[in-house]
Amino acid sequence: MKAAVALAEILARPDVWCADRLASAAIPALASGFARLDAELPGGGWPRGALTEILADGTGLGECSLLLPVLGRMREEGRWSLLVAPPYSLNGTAWAARGIDLARLAVVSPSRPRDALWAAEHALASGALGALLCWTTSIDAAQVRRLQVAAAGSDTLAFLFRPLRARSESSAAALRLLLTAGAHATLAVDLLKRRGPPCTRTLHLEVPRPLQWRANHESCQIHAADAALAGPASAISRARSQRPLAFA
Amino acid sequence: MPSPSAVVEQGRIVLADAAAGQAGVADGIGVAAARMLAPAITLIARNLPRESAALHILACWAGGLTPKISLTPDTLLLEIGSCLRLFGGVGKIVSTARAGIAAQGFALALAVAPTPRGAQWLAQSGSSAICLDADSMRRQLETLPLAVLPDKAASTLARFGARTLADVRRLPSAALGRRIGAASLQVLAQAFGELADPRAEFIFPEQFSLSLPLPAAVETAAALLFAARRLTSALSGWLIVRQAGVREMTLCLQHRREETRLVLQFAELTAAGERFERVLRERLENLPLRAPVEAIRLEASRVDALAGRSRALFNDAAGEQEAIAALLERLCARLGEKQIYRLAVHDDHRPEYATQCIPLFAKAVPSEARALPRPLWLLAKPQSLAESAGRPQRRGPLRLLAGPERIEAGWWDGGEMRGEMSAEKGGEAVGDIRRDYFIALSNDACWLWIYRECREPGGWYLHGFFS
Question: Is-contact B230 B266, C-beta < 8 A?
C-alpha cells in the first residue's frame, strides 16, 4: 500500500491551484505597462495562451490604449499581430506613432461574422501569432469556449472585445475585464474574473490621452476652443494666435 | 472509375484491373471473351495522348526525386544512383516515390536495377524487384518471360522452345544474332549491362503550364482538389529541379465555353507541395462553380530562384516564420484579398488618405511616424453631428478640449487617391477639403475627433475615436 502523501506535497504541484492565491501562469505573462493592473493580474501581466475578454460599450474610452503597450512589445519580439473585425477603419499613422509595427500587423475585416470567428479561432490554433485582437457583438458561450481552447494551445495574447451586456453571461475566458470611464480621464477597470481570488476594487488607470488632462477640463465647461465658437471667423484667428496645445 | 474495368486496344485487352483479373480477364484476350467472363465490365479505349500527358506530369513531379529523368513511351526512368545518399538509402527513395504516386491516384509498377532497360523490363513484368548489384539483377532478369523482348524476336525464340530470358542467354550469341537480328541482341546486352545504354534526358519545360483534362466533367469545386494535386505536385518537382520557388500561381478551371482563373498567392517563395495544396483547398472549398469543369490548367506566374537557406540549429525563428506565412496564406485564400490586408502610411496631410490598405504580401515602404495627435480609429464616412446652441451634440453636448486644427487643400485631387471617378462637385475636386478639427469629450467619456466643415453647408462631423 502506498504511503499517504503529505498535503504540502500536493499543494506544491504545479497543476494544483489554491483558490486564495493568484494563479501563476505556465507561460510567463507579458507586463501590461500599467503597474496597478499588473499587480492584480495573475502572473503579473496579460496572460499568454489564454483568452482575455474585454467588455466595454462605446468606442473612445481608451480601450485600445490599454493594449497598445503590449502590442508595442510585439515589435521587439518580431511577432505578428492580427486584428479581426475591428469596429472602424484603422488610422495607420496613429498606430505607427504609438509604436505598433505596421509591417507585422494584419487586419481581417470579413463581411460575415462567422468568418471573423473562423479566422480568430484558426489564427489562435496555429500558434504563430504574437497577439490577436477580435471584436464581436454577438458570440455565444460555446464559441467563446472554442476560442479559449484554441488559445490554450499557443503562446498568443488573445483579446476579445465584447459589449457590456455580455457581463451577465458566463464565459470560458480566463480573464474578464470590464472597462468604464473613470474620473479625471482615467480608465476604470473592473476584473470580473481572474484565476485567483475575486478582485473587488476598481482600478483607475492613466491611459495615454491625446492631450494632457488638466483640472480645468473638468470644471470649466466652456473651454477656450468652445468660447471660440462664438464667431467662426474669430475662432480661427484666435486659435492661431494661441500657443499650440501640448499634446501627450 | 467503375470496377471491373479494362483498357482495350485493337480489340484486345491490354490492361485489366484487379476485379476483372479475378473474373479471369487476362491481358491479350479478345473483347468478346472479356465480356463473357465479366458481363459488367467497363471497357475503355486506350488513349495514348493522355497516357503520355500523364507521364509528362509525372516526369515533372519526379524532379523532386532526381534531376536525371528519361521518358519512354510507357515508362518513366529515374536515375537514382546519385541521389541515394541524399534520401538515405534506396528504401527511403522508393517509399517516397510510392507515396507520392499513390497520393496522385496512379497505380504503380516499380523496379530498381543497375541498367535502365533492366529496370524497365522488371517493372513492365510487374516483378517490383529492387536489385542494387549486377548479380542480383541478372538473376531477376533471367526469370522474365520472353514478352519483354521485341515482338518478332520473342516469337522466333518461342519457336525454339525458349520460355525465359535464361533460356535465351544459354544460346550461343553469334547464332542468336543471326536468328533474332543484331538490334534485338543489342537490347538484350544492354539490359544485362554488357553494352552501354545512353538515354535522352527529359528536358524540364522552361515555363510551367500544364493542363489536365478531367475524365468526366466535375460539378463541385471540392472534387477538383484531387485532380489539382497532380498538377501541384508536378509543379513542386519542377521547382525543385530549377531550385526555384513560386510566389504566385494561377489555376484555370476550363468550362465548356469560358474559364475561371484562380490566382493563388504565397507569403514567400516556396516549392512545398503541401503548402500549395493547403492554399488550394481553402480556395476551392468555398468556390461556387459557374459551370462544370472539363479540364484544369496550372501556371506558375511568378517564379524566382530560391535563395539557399542554412538551417538554424535551434529551428525557432525559421519555424515561426513559416508558421505565420502558412497562417496568412490560409486566411488570404479563404477570405480573399479584400478582407485581409495590411496598412501602409502614406505621406498626406489629409487623414483619410494618410493610411492605405495594401495587399498582405505587398512590399510596404516604411514611413516615419508623425507626432500629431491622431485617433486610432477613423470612420470610413464622417458622421454628421447635430448642433444645438452652436455646440456639437452626441448623446449630449460635446466638450471641445483642443483645437481647432485646420486641415485643408487637396484641390489637385479629383478623387484619384481613392480610385473614384473624377466627379467634379460644384467645380471643386473631390479630394479638396477645408476642415477645423477638434478633440472632443462626450458626456459618456468617449474621446472623439470631430471637425467643423468650413465650406458650405458647414456643420459638425465625427471623424474618429481616440480609443
Answer: no
Domain ranges of chain A: 17-205, 210-248
Q: What confidence tens digit (pLDDT) does each residue in B390-402 have? A: 888 888 888 888 8
Residues 305-324 of B with CB under 8 A from A: 317, 320, 323-324
Whole-Å CA distances, B99 to B59, B85, B102, B344: 15, 19, 5, 44
Q: How many CB atoms lie within 10 A of CB B211?
A: 14
Closest residue in B to A209 (Cα) is B466
Domain ranges of chain B: 5-45, 67-191, 209-308+316-332, 377-465
B344 close to A (CB below 8 A): yes
pLDDT tens digits along B247-287: 889 999 888 888 888 888 887 788 888 888 888 888 888 78
Residue of B275, B163, B323, B295 whose CA lies nearest to B227: B295
Q: A17-205: CATH homologous superfamily?
A: P-loop containing nucleotide triphosphate hydrolases (3.40.50.300)
* Res A247 pLDDT > 70: no
Q: What letter does residue B425 receive in the DSSP assignment?
A: B
A-chain CB neighbours of B370 within 8 Å are 93, 97
The per-residue b/e assignment along B80-111, b for 16 or more CB within 10 angstroms, e otherwise, is beeeeeebeebeebbeebeebbeebeeeeebb
Mean pLDDT of the region A89-114: 89
Q: Are B71 and B59 in contact (CB under 8 A)?
A: yes
ipTM: 0.79
Q: What does the alpha-carbon distance between residue A86 and residue B104 come to, in Å, rounded to a whole number?
A: 42
- From the list B379, B444, B446, the residue facing A88 with the nearest CB is B379
Nearest to B377 among A59, A221, A223 (CB): A59
Q: Taking CB atoms and an 8 Å limit, are A107 and B374 in contact across chains?
A: no
Assigned architecture for domain B209-308+316-332 = 2-Layer Sandwich (3.30)
Residue B273 one-letter amino acid: G
CB atoms within 10 A of CB A81: 25
Nearest chain A residue to B372 by CA distance is: A247
**Which band of pLDDT confidence, cut at 50, 70 and 90, is reported for residue B417?**
low
Of B386, B434, B382, nearest to B408 by C-alpha is B434
Q: Provide the shortest C-alpha distance from residue A147 to chain B (in Å).
A: 16
CB B135 within 8 A of CB B158: no
Q: Tell me whether residues B400 and A223 touch, CB distance under 8 A.
A: yes
- Which residue type is seen at B419? G
